[in-house]
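Review box. Two proteins, two foldings.
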Amino acid sequence: MENSKYPQFTFTWLGGVILLVGMFAGTTVTSFFNVFWMFVFKENLQYKDWFFMLANATGFIAAIAFFDFFIVRRTTGKKLNFNFSPTNFYTYVLIFPMMIGMMFIGEFITSQIPTTGPFFGKYYEFFTQLMDQLTDDPVVMVITAVICAPIFEEIIFRGIIQKGLINKGVEPRKAILYASLIFGVVHGNPWQLVGAILLGCVLGLVYFKTKSLLLPMLLHGFNNLCSTLLITYTKSESFAEAFKVSEWMVLAIGLVLFSLFLYLFTKRNKVHYNEI
């Protein structure tokens, strides 16, 4: 597709390094800004909820900008650009129940990971305290988790890493898996690892099939919105606790939903999309 308006860049280890350097540069800028603010106004912005959101967004934006400038433009002669086109209503009807099924399956697997013991106990306590600090302000939590994270993370993990691997010649299912594994690992804890990998596989499949980055962004936002609501109103991310059912019931419903709508989406849905 040489006439495509979307650059056909590839993703290699160098691209990964560029993303990390960009992320570091972005967060460093916000850190210096905080130091300047402390020096002039005698106030530490690090403890402001909105500053965490700003620092997070700045890191992602810098990473994407670095990859665009140092990889995409230098190898393709084009600017980094993605397809954000909406799709037909039938596709939305299929992908959201499939996502819910995946979320239920992920919750069951996550519930089997220990939260007590000499290693997991201290780690889980640290993780819980960290999450509590990040969710003090519900408005900031919604903006960060439901809006910013889906946009920036989908651009990087699906739009850059997965697409770049496929453009490099990696088999699509392997590219989806690799991007999902990286997506899971960067969450930095075992209780989000499984859910993030499963989420990434569904998002990667949807992106590969529809060729639109809008759909995985919407699904990602929906997933994070559900987690935000569960944390806000039940103090946990458990559907089982919210609906007063066993985790085995959650697993059974998840398997049915995911299997059925995965089949309908991949086998029965005859609508295919191309990036032009």
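Next protein.
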Amino acid sequence: MNRLPVAERREQLIEAALSVASREGIDGATVRAVAAEAGVSLGVVHYCFRDKDELLRAMAHTITERNLARGLAEMPESAPAKDLILGVLEGLWANIRATRGPQLLTYELTTTSLRHSELRQVGIDQYVVSWAAAEHFLEEVERAGSVTWRLPRHIIARSIIAAVDGFSLAWLVDGDADAGYQGLRLFAEHLATLAVPMDEEAMLSGTAEDPHEPRGDLHRLVKPVGAGVTALA
């Protein structure tokens, strides 16, 4: 067996785990099955990952990163916010369609973590990473589109993940990719209405001291929502 740095070996084992779990489900992704898929001993898996919980978290993180990476990689340096949003979400949807097994796996990871208390952190980390990735996307739109947002980024980020989760799950159930795409596009067009050009934001607020944080004046333009409910949910 070739000796690899721990970081490279972990990546190899994550790939093996994703392959096994995509074919056979979470229950099939035992440490023994992952070791066999990777062509390594059980001891190698245990050396790289403390337990299956850590391996599952790494799998969820990898799927989330890949979902967003394609869209962000194709984002132009400068463009209208609406074009940026539509372009990234179209790339995201194309990647979701092309990786049905891993997408189904994300929901299995979530439900498994909810049913087994010892795996609860898997689901928590899954959404923390997803929300952070969505916030990063919003920051990139700010930069490339010269805009700010009518609402705090963390609220919009949660709404993005909720929308993507919903349309993805519906597609997994009914197989209607066009309906999923049209629904996601409708959401993207709505999302674009929350982006405010920085020159307009400065005019409304009287200053643009921090372009990365929504101004209080802009918040007053948005109808309040009930506690615990996002404006886009």
